From TrEMBL:
Gene3D superfamilies: Vaccinia Virus protein VP39. One of its GO terms (biological process) is methylation. This is thiopurine S-methyltransferase. It catalyses: S-adenosyl-L-methionine + a thiopurine = S-adenosyl-L-homocysteine + a thiopurine S-methylether. Belongs to the class I-like SAM-binding methyltransferase superfamily. TPMT family. It is found in: Cytoplasm. It comes from the Eukaryota. Pfam families: TPMT. InterPro entries: SAM-dependent_MTases_sf (IPR029063), Thiopurine_S-MeTrfase (IPR025835), TPMT (IPR008854). GO terms for molecular function: thiopurine S-methyltransferase activity. GO terms for cellular component: cytoplasm. PROSITE patterns: SAM_MT_TPMT.
Length: 196
């Protein structure tokens, strides 16, 4: 696939943390993403009480929306600031605990128990830590992952899928030679080869 000059581009964890600290979070949508509302039926497939995964969740408002519908929401994000802002902005009480098996990681869980957010690298997670999921909302994750790490990222997502899980993926289309990313350009042909 032709992803132009982006092929070797790397954004470090420190750079992402800095974006949150500086408030350079143009990728955060205060009103939630219209495509999730539009394709909610595809994600849920008439099912209730699902376990839904938000990779690289930031402080996505959709997490509260889906939890309020009765689903269990699990997210992962390197920025503790983003996770704390999520709970504060929704006036949700939560508790913090270390994550066994991941050095330095924390799990922030709503006291109602239906929202669990892991503060660590997505690559530190495994199904033995977070279980498997019925649904995925990948709104800004695959397009934020460094191009060289896409295969590793998708391979991990596949290990977290239940048999009948639904994966909603949002990407952006543009000329990758005119913008260095993120969000990175992920052509449809690559999505097909990554997810099969």
């Amino acid at each position: 696939s032709d992803i132009g000059a982006q092929k070797d581009r790397v954004v470090t964890e420190e750079e992402w943390l800095q974006k949150w600290e500086m408030g350079s979070t143009g990728f955060h949508k205060e009103q939630g993403h219209p495509l999730l509302r539009k394709y909610l039926d595809v994600l849920l497939s008439g099912r209730s009480g699902l376990r839904i995964f938000f990779p690289l969740c930031g402080k996505a408002v959709e997490m509260k929306w889906l939890a309020d519908m009765g689903h269990s929401v699990i997210g992962v994000e390197v920025s503790e600031q983003a996770l704390k802002e999520f709970f504060a902005e929704h006036s949700l009480p939560y508790c913090e605990e270390p994550v066994p098996g991941i050095s330095g990681a924390k799990k922030l869980q709503s006291t109602s128990g239906n929202i669990s957010l892991y503060c660590c690298s997505v690559y530190d997670l495994s199904s033995s830590i977070v279980g498997k999921f019925d649904g995925f909302w990948d709104r800004g994750a695959l397009v934020a992952v460094n191009p060289r790490d896409r295969q590793r990222y998708v391979s991990l997502m596949i290990t977290l899928m239940e048999k009948n899980s639904s994966y909603l993926l949002v990407t952006v289309s543009y000329d990758p030679n005119k913008h260095k990313g993120p969000p990175f350009y992920v052509p449809e042909s690559e999505i097909k080869s990554l997810f099969g």
